[in-house]
Amino acid sequence: MGLVKCKQCGTRYSKQAWICPNCGTGRPTISNLWGFFAVGLMIVVAIQMIIRQADLPQQTSLSPPSTLAAPMPKPTPAAPPQQISDNETLLKQEVIKAINKASRREKLRVNNVETINISGLINVDIFITLKSMWSEETFFLEMDSALVKSCQLLAQKWPNQVRRVIFFLHGPVVDKYGKEDTALAMKLYFNMSDLKKANWEHMQVYQDLLNLVDDAELKPFGRQIAAAYCGKKNNAELSNLFCGRFLRPR
Q1: I want to staple 121 with a disulfide (CB 3.0 to 4.6 A). Which of 108, 143, 163, 191 is the partner?
Q2: Its pTM surpasses 0.70
Q3: 3-state per-residue secondary structure call for 185-207
Q4: Alpha carbon of residue 107 to chain centroid
Q5: Residue 103: which of 184, 206, 222, 235 has the closest Cα?
Q6: Is 240 helix (H, G, I), strand (E, B) or coil?
Q7: Domain range holding 132?
Q8: Is the same domain home to 131 and 46?
Q9: How far apart are the first and last CA of the chain?
Q10: What does the alpha-carbon distance between residue 171 and residue 4 come to, in Å, rounded to a whole number?
């Protein structure tokens, strides 16, 4: 029977014993050696993985690898300010030209056309002065061409660019000293959504157009004009919506 020597205390004991009878130290076996080897191998692999991870470029968990990232869509470029300005300038020129061509220049004057761009849609302010008139009753008749032609032009040529059209209508007045002058009579508001629906082949008179007025601000002078106009039975029937809405006491 062979003997082995304990590595801890030096006692010699039988090979058939697994532990030293003197100090209790276990005798190394092949299975134990394989266990130590496996643990050591795992430690070495873990150290190598840590070293490789440290050498990689840093990336945040929220950012995907650049090779897999989808390209961001390019935003649609907005119209340059100069282009918008040019369009509004052309619009002003066209409106003034249409009014002057359709009206009697010696009696009617286009004071100004202004545009206000609000979120890509334009409000058009048209300032018109009637220098003289036959009577308060004929004020709209003498404004006929200026109102109809400018609204028709805007509705047919700029239906998607214009949001609202506002007319500032001035007429002749005489003050208490007998001095002749002009003053603002009224402001008429038209929505482009209404003007686009109009049948311009059949709407060539001011009576029909007045029924499309969305809102109106009548000055005392303008209220006299509207009262004289709507006082005629034929006008009251043709412009029934306008006369019914804006001649009520406020």
Answers
A1: 163
A2: no
A3: EEEEEEEHHHHCCCCCCCCCCHH
A4: 42
A5: 206
A6: helix
A7: 81-246
A8: no
A9: 129
A10: 131
